[in-house]
Amino acid sequence: MFKNYIKIAWRNLQKRKVFAFINILGLALGFGCSILIFLFINYHLQFDDFHENADRIYRVVTEEHQGSDVGYEAAVPPAFANAFSTEYDYAEKVAKIYYQDALQIDIEDDNGTKKFQNDIVFAEQDIFEIFNFPILEKISEQSLADPKTAYVSESFGKKVFGVQNPLGKSFTLDNNKTIQIIGIFKDIPKNSTVQGDVFVSFLTLKGSGDFVAKDVWSGINSSLRCYTLLHPNQNIANIEESLISLVSKHRPKIKNVHRYKLQSLSSIHFNNDYGGINTSLLWIFGLVGLFLIIIACINFINISTAQAFSRSKEIGIRKVLGGYKQHLFWQFISETFVLSLFAIIIGCAIAFFALPTFNELFGLSLSIQSLISFKTVVFVLSLLVMVSLLAGSYPGILLSRIVPTLALKGKLTQRDTGEKLTRKILVTAQFVISIVLIVSTIVIGKQISFAVNADLGFKKDAIVMVPIPEKIEKIKIDGLKDRFFQISGVEKVTACFASPGAAYSNWGTSVKYNTRPEHEEFFISAKLSDKDYIKTFGLELVAGRNFRESDSITEVVVNEKLGEKLGVASPEELVGKQVELNGGFIKATISGVVANFHDQNFHENINPVFIAPSRNAYNEFAIKINGKNATTSLLEIEKRWKEVFPKYIFDYTFLDQRVAEQYQEEQRFLSLSKLFSGLAIFISCLGLYGLISFFVAQKTKEIGIRKVLGGKISDILLLFTQDFFKLILIAGVIASPVAWYFMTNWLENYQYRISIDWWVFAVAIIGVTVITIATISYQAVRAAIANPVDSLRSE
User: Fold this and answer.
1) How far apart are CA 634 and CA 27, in angstroms?
2) At 451, is the pLDDT very low, low, confident or very high (cuts 50, 70, 90)?
3) Among 490, 313, 327, 275, residue whose Cα is nearest residue 406
4) 763: buried, middle or exposed (CB in 10 Å: 19+, 13-18, 0-12)?
5) Which of 658, 529, 663, 509 is nearest to 101 (CA)?
6) CA 330, CA 2: separation in Å to the nearest integer?
7) Beta strands at 170-173 and 91-109: parallel, antiparallel or unpaired
8) Quick one: pLDDT at residue 131?
């Protein structure tokens, strides 16, 4: 029986090649995108699930309570790990790791010295006991408990040493430390929270003067992480409660009250407060994949029901010859299955060829094996069954109910064969989805454009950020600045810790204002730089003057936000007042006030800021250049930089690019919105093209009669389009509040955001209208200009 169903289904599809092609193409695109979205969602859901004791692994994080404000930091003070390990008995293992980006590595071989940059993880030995990072081979008598030792990944070893075994070999780190490789581990999967190719002993930092290497409680470095493997059956709430005593013991006088929390490994990737992804993104991806499948199914249902009249006599004869309703129903399901089978094969091919681009777009590492994994195969088969039933059931039920006597006499009505109202509802649903996706794309694009191109309160164009790779004396910094100024095209130069909008540079510290008896309940962020910082970045001085440089910090410039938080009436009132910073270690006078600037991205509020000199903290030069001679200027900058730092690799970034990179995830989201909006509209257009083709064939004689009676081409075109105009208008009314709701919620992630204007919805509705007219006009105009003699000849 089933074999017979398939055979008849194949013959019917061959008879209607155009409509079969339209349905297969629409479903194939929906299948292909859904498979990729499934791989994306499954990739994120599998984060960190390969560790043996994943249920007992926790990261310690910090809630910073400052008055009524609560800040979230995925790190702890440097002294926490040792205190937690020695003062409590909750954990089997405790380890901290510290990330540093783009440190220089030098390798000596027979061909000389090879220099390159690589991210480094400074780690304590227990990190390899907490996490299951397979060690391929190691020197047994050594570990990361020994300073100046390292474990490297298998791929790193091959990249650096080629076919030679890197075990036991050495490299020079940052031109001042010789590190021995004592172990090689298997490459860490991309869906792991802890990442790295080179793990260097944490003790290597000892004596370096680096804040994280000190046993202190006074601050937090966001690049320092603490992980622990707890004993079985621990009560997390009780542990967190007991950790309050650490705060009262080690930070009794500081108003920024810490609350140390244990974050389970399984929740790290999805906790947005601590830098994880927003789970709503996965829901959105899943819904988009579902919408694409639904649109393709709607196409199939509409075209199938529209063809009901042409198949009514076939159905009538089958019923007269003894065919039952259930037999006819399964016949249509079989046709849908055959068509869906072709579509899903093509969809898998689309996913296969699109996978490299998809990986690049979203920074993933999905392999071809992921396409043939057990989960993916189950998903594809489930999708095939679901779509076959979803798309085939309604046409099957509708057509199996046809009364054979009416079918054979040719007296079937539209209600009997097509359910015109149902078709209109389904087409309207397609329009609703398309309008929502278009509105979403426009709003996301506007917000990203606003964030990247808005006035940030500082200049970012044509400013080159060049690193200062090692601590050097003030005389060398000033000398190098003078050399930069000698370059034609260089306009301004400053040495600083980081640019004004660099979120990673927000060193927050306590502040005590003037004669007030206590420290304020909020933090103030430090922007450490020389005196040329303000003019290089174009900060607006609204009161007072710039600070004077000295060996210690005696004067600071603050922003207007500090005055707002203090409740001071005007910026002028701040000038000349005394402030104590960093727990009283810095006592200085406010010499000037600058206008507010965005010290973080648009997701965050502007913080109170002070700008002060501290040459030991300078990490980079900011060089304002003339854009007309950029290439020549960069070559000269490199030449002079290498005269001072001959052992280091020269590197630079443009500040405007660095600002744009802060919205990389949003840019990817925008690319996704554009792609899926385009696909949704294209699949919808395929369905509309199929429908209008069928309607034109049905109305051929009607069109001929209208033309003979004097009907104009515009009247005939309106005949086919007027119903669609009504459906688009209804869809616009439904889609607009839906899109407004979702986009308003999405914009809540930004402290500084656009408003959603009415014209966004108008553009989406007009756009869908224009695309719809373009889709149906070809067939409609072709029918309208045809010779009526040809269509009426048989009468």
Assistant:
1) 52
2) confident
3) 313
4) middle
5) 658
6) 9
7) antiparallel
8) 92
- What distance, in Å, lies between the first and last C-alpha atoms of the chain? 42
Residue in the structure block whose two tokens are 């090689």: 184
Q: Would you place residue 160 in the very low, low, confident or very high pLDDT band (cuts 50, 70, 90)?
A: confident
Q: Are strands 257-264 and 609-612 parallel, antiparallel or unpaired?
A: unpaired
From residue 633, alpha-carbon distances to 207, 240, 637, 651 in Å are 38, 55, 6, 14
pTM of the model: 0.80
Spell out where 348-489 has E strands.
463-467
Q: Beta-carbon neighbour count of residue 470 at 10 Å?
A: 12
397 is written with which tokens?
């039920």
pLDDT in tens, 227-271: 999 999 999 999 999 988 887 787 766 666 788 999 999 999 888
Question: Looking at residue 187, what DSSP letter applies?
Answer: P
Distance CA(783)–CA(479), nearest Å, equals 80
Return all residues near 3 (Cβ < 8 A) that are at least 6 apart. Answer: none
- DSSP code per residue over 682-744: HHHHHHHHHHHHHHHHHTHHHHHHHHHTT--HHHHHHHHHHHHHHHHHHHHHHHHHHHHHHHH
Mean of pLDDT over the chain = 82
d(CA 436, CA 447): 17
Residue indicated by tokens 């002070």: 610
Within 13 Å of residue 399, how many CA atoms lie on the same side as its CB? 31
Residue 390 tokens, joined? 């979803």
DSSP letter at 529 equals B
Query: Greater confidence, 11 or 408?
Result: 11
In terms of DSSP bridges, do strands 507-509 and 524-528 run parallel, antiparallel, or are they unpaired?
A: antiparallel
Interval 544-560 mean pLDDT: 91
Number of Cβ atoms within 10 Å of the Cβ of 301: 24
User: How many residues are given for the chain?
Assistant: 795
How much is the pLDDT for 793?
A: 59
3-state secondary structure labels for all residues of 337-354:
HHHHHHHHHHHHHHHHHH
CA nearest neighbour of 355 among 610, 764, 33: 33
CA pair distance 335, 395, nearest whole angstrom: 11
Q: Which pair of structure tokens corresponds to residue 188?
A: 């860490």
Contacting residues for 230 by C-beta, under 8 A, at least 6 apart: 56, 57, 58, 90, 91, 92, 239, 262
Q: Determine the pLDDT at residue 181.
A: 92
Answer whether residue 578 shows pLDDT above 70: yes
Pairwise CA distance, residues 755 & 778, whole Å = 38
Q: Tell me, what's the pLDDT at 324?
A: 57
Buried b (16+ CB within 10 A) or exposed e, 615-636: bebbbbbbbbbeeeeeeebbeb
Distance CA 518, CA 514 (A): 10
Which one is predicted more confidently, 325 or 571?
571
State the DSSP string of 553-566: --EEEEEHHHHHHH
Sign of CA dihedral 383, 388, 389, 394: positive
Assess whether pLDDT exceeds 50 at residue 795. Answer: no
